[in-house]
Predict the 3D structure of the following.
Amino acid sequence: SIETQMSYGPPTVSHLEDANGNHVDSIGTRGSDIVVLVGTNFPNDQHELDAVRFGNAQNGYQTYTVVAGTVDLTDAAAATPGTCQVVLDTNTPSQIRCLTAPGVLRGHHWIVTVSGQVSPPGALTHYYAPVVDSVEVETVSERMNVVPGEQPELGLFPTKGSTALLHGTHFGIT
């Protein structure tokens, strides 16, 4: 008798897309963005997806939880940030959809393990950079508001002992 063994090539992750199919390379620092991993040799069902990891060699990788494809990732009671699922569609190759975890910094990659085969790091992804909308400064003697790009009124510069409150987005995970 002749036995043959066949296996697929290792998976690869080429890039990310949003739910509308648009290319994505940055995600929110608070997590909960839905992204679709695009690549090759993805699993045919959730049982073949061993792991999805996100991060980098310098700071480490976070392993995402794999859930059934029937779970609604937008339902906070059913899925938490850091969750992935295999999505099967008869018209397209299988996809891996993930609900991103909170984080910061640039230079992260996705690694997928399918039936024991590990992809190389792929789909370079960054968390959004912080955006300062306004600065509120309280000096020892008075309070003032400064809008980025505009000069404060003459004489209203912060002094020693002043505090500044930055208003904006993507300052971190809290």
Q: What stands out?
A: The first strand starts at residue 12 and ends at 17. Residues 24 and 47 are 27 Å apart (CA to CA).
